[in-house]
Amino acid sequence: MSFQTIIDNAESISINKKKKVSTTQARDGTIRVTSTGSQVWEFRVRLPDGLRWSNYRNLIEKVETLDRVTEGSFQINKSGHEWMTKYQGGFSNTANIVVSFSSGNTLTISSGGGGTSGAFKFKAGDFIQLGAGGKVYSVAADVSVGSSTITTHRPIRESAGSYTLLVGPAVTWQVYCVEFPNYQFIAQDVIGWSGDFVFSEAI
Question: Which of 26, 76, 144, 150 is the most exposed place for a label (fewest CB within 10 A)?
Answer without folding.
Answer: 26
